[in-house]
Amino acid sequence: MNAAPRLWKELCESADFVCYENRLGAFPIFVGYIKTLTETDVLERSILGCLSDNPNASFEELFQLIPVAEKEICEDWKRTQDKVYRGYVAIQYGQDSQQWLLINAAATKGRSVAIPEVEFTVEGPKEGFVESLDTNLNLIRQRVPYPDLRIKELTVGSISKSRIAVVYIKGITNEQYLNTCIQRIEDVRFDQITDSTLLQQMIEDNSNSIFPQTIGTERPDYVAWAVSSGQICILKDGSPTAVFVPVNLWLFFITYEDYYLPWIIASVLRMIRMCSVLFSVYASPLYVAVITYHGQGISNVFLPTIVSSRINVPFPPVVEVLIMELVIELLREAGARLPTKIGQTIGIVGGIVLGTAAVEAALTSNFLLIIVALSALASFTTPVFRMSATIRVLRFPFIFAAQIWGLLGIVICTLALVAHLLRLTSLGMPYLVPVYPFRKSDLYDTVIRPPYSKFHHRFSFFRSPSPVRFDRKKAAAKKDIDE
Amino acid sequence: MKLPATEHPRLTVSAFLVFVLIHAMQFGPEYVSMSIKPIRWAGQDVWISAILSGLSISAVIWLMYQILDRCGTDLIHIHRRLFGRWAGSGLNLVFIVYFLLLACFQLRLFIEVIQVWLFADLATWPLALVLLVLAYYIVSGGFRVVVGICMFSLIRYVTIFAMFFPAIYFHFNNLTPAFDHSPSEILQASKAMTFPYLGAESLLFCYTFIKSPEKSQKWAHWANALTTFSFLLILFFSLLLFKPEQLSFEVWPQLTKYKFIQFPFIDRFEYIGATAQILWVIPIICFCLWASSRIGKIMLGVRQTAVLPFLSLIVFAAVCLIPDRPGVERLQAWLDGFGFCLTYAYIPLVYLVVLVRVKARTAA
Questions:
Q1: Is residue A255 part of a domain?
Q2: Using the beta-carbon criterion (under 8 Å), do A408 and B114 form an inter-chain contact?
Q3: A274 and A222 housed in the same domain
Q4: How large is the average pLDDT for residues B333-339?
Q5: Are the beta carbons of B51 and B182 closer than 8 angstroms?
Q6: Residue A478 lies in a domain
Q7: Domain count, chain A
């Protein structure tokens, strides 16, 4: 079948397709576009205006005349069709021509750059990514005006045809990681990729793990930092989350604000965050273990407080803990699904009214209420949302293990967790590096955030071809007293 | 007769991790009872015996490196090379049995500790099953994960250092008079300490998994030094807290010692001490299962994943068949004897055979 009629016929099946016929010249000129995708301004002023001003221009002349930079001559009707669905205007000379002039008139509607809401920081820049890929790339380019910053574009998804941009700095990013990453993206077999979080799950090393092996961020400054440390950043058109790989466990407990605060303060905050993770996972399982099995283990000073608080509670500790954990999860889930203002109300009603009432009705001990509320709070200090969700889920197996074998159950669970973390990799990089495999020179930015003079080398586990950030000797010239 | 180390660099561990591995393998859960017999022999002079044992193990480590560096491969291949296909396989089989029995012993000892100190009515099989499933999960991650667990298990030192809290109960008079025992008594005490010191032989089976193995020797010696230091610490705690007569009534003096520790919140530290025993046990069980399944893999030419469940099942059945304390003690006595022969007779013998073969080659 002839290509031209087929192209127009298939396009005409969409209601928003417009086919405009210009008969001013020697032969008919067909202009086809999808009106919901094109910018009327560009279309009318640059394309249609140019057409009616030069009715007798030939195809090639017209190609030169149209004052739009993104244009091409295409002889493949499939590609033409794809481009029309991306907001291009197709121009055909004559009834049966096999050549189309494609001009970009895509309407870019979307949010304007706004404050990042999930990763808000008090200090530092307030720009967050938006849905438009070009805007996002612009935000990154502004921060990295470096000639070796490379952007590789891929298309993924048989229906969504999503544009994926892989951003890296040539000469700083390890080629092997880059190839693995691109290979994984190319291997994605899925039709509709609506967000980069889907992509995240599809390119991870172990998709059955509850631990995320990629980090999503909405901060362009964080991406600029990650790219210059040798990581690879993946952006998807239509998604405000940039993903970077490879990552290790410790990166999940770093907020980018750590780098904007003085190093001692940042380190203290970071340590508090890491302790709060441990507290969040272990507090309620320990409560179950101690109350169920090891009551004698608690000192006499402390025991009366606990006993008196749960003297009227009719449930065994594990049921009590499970009820309270579920109530907290329920509150969080309800708060997340409702509009902000109602969500806040629910939080207050649920938190204060339910909590007080539950203690007064002797359904739970107020000691446990404190533990559960604190561990929920502690889990929210983790800056990466997927990790904080992981930590909230993680405590349930621990609670069950504590109910079965007390302290021993918790320790067995911990060992299983450690074994799992030891087995995990991110793009083939061990998840627990630099602790295991142990890399002494890379320990500097894990638990503490040292002063910037210590950042003279990039992390060796990113295997950067240029591992040196700056010359340490020049930077640290030591002075004696009174010099 | 040099063979290239065949392991892919992705599977190897850095040389200094030999320190972690050897130390974790040496410092097993039998330390809970290790001070009774040597102190019975050498009393307050037991520290001399501990140092002697440590030095002799260092000599054995030197011998092992001589063998391994000369042959450039692990003992499994050396066996075949030196003794032929059948005799070599027979020797390898002996080592499979040794590792499996060692795993059984560690597992059964741990379960016994839990049954005595935490849950009196806990049956043996559920805990054995859970721990073996855990060990299976770790071992199926490969050698690197096994060593990772060894490294993680080093947080056990928290409980050892907690022993400094009851310092007010220490009786330093117990340490005098020094040098009060005859050399034969001190040697007897050293011999009684062989079993806790065992573990360096693990090196014979994972040599090819070490990145630049020639550089790892100093780390093996350091590991042995740390083990000696830890054992000295434990022996001193025993001497300082117990009279020798009291000690002979104890089964696991180290766990009893935990009873001396008190914190404002925690009254019974021995619960934590008994639970923490798992950190001594799991690395050894994992390494034993890894080593025996690897020997099986090389001997039979099958996949390690096929051998591993089978061996885990054997360990499970064997652990369930050890009924009580005498059973554990018989097993310990057997392993003690085997380990003694292995370290002080078999390894020197292999060294001599390797030397003779090298000499014969150069002569011919």
A1: no
A2: yes
A3: no
A4: 93
A5: no
A6: no
A7: 3
What is the H or E stretch that residue A33 is in? Answer: strand A29-34
CB half-sphere exposure, B226, CA atoms < 13 A: 19
Could you read off the pLDDT of A220-238 as tens digits, one per residue?
A: 999 999 999 999 999 999 9
pLDDT tier at A477, thresholds 50, 70, 90: low
Contact A418 B152 (CB under 8 A): yes
Q: Which two tokens stand for residue A310?
A: 């749960």
CA distance A216 to A235: 10
pLDDT digits (tens, 9 = 90+) for B107-140: 999 999 999 988 888 999 999 999 999 999 999 9
Do A267 and A239 reside in the same domain of the chain?
A: no
For A107, counting Cβ atoms within 10 Å of its Cβ (0-12 exposed, 13-18 middle, 19+ buried), the class is middle
Q: How confident is the model at residue A146 (pLDDT cuts 50, 70, 90)?
A: very high
> Are residues A243 and A271 part of one domain?
no
Q: B319: distance to nearest CA of chain A, Å?
A: 18
> Pick from B145, B263, B268: which is nearest to A419 by CB?
B145
- Whether A302 and A237 map to the same domain: the answer is no
Q: Does the pLDDT at position A77 exceed 90? A: no
Q: Are residues A224 and A184 in the same domain?
A: yes
pTM: 0.92
The residue assigned the tokens 């980090």 is A215
Q: Which domain holds residue A46?
A: 3-104
Is the distance from CB of B280 to CB of B28 less than 8 angstroms?
yes
Query: What is the third-level CATH fold of B9-363?
Result: Amino acid/polyamine transporter I (1.20.1740)
Position A52 in a domain: yes
Please give the mean pLDDT across all residues of chain A: 89
A400 in any annotated domain: yes
Q: Which of B118, B147, B210 to mutate to test the interface with A (most CBs of A within 10 A)?
A: B118
* Complex confidence, ipTM: 0.93
Structural domain boundaries in chain B: 9-363
Put simply, whether A417 touches B (Cβ < 8 Å) is: no
**Res A1: pLDDT:** 45
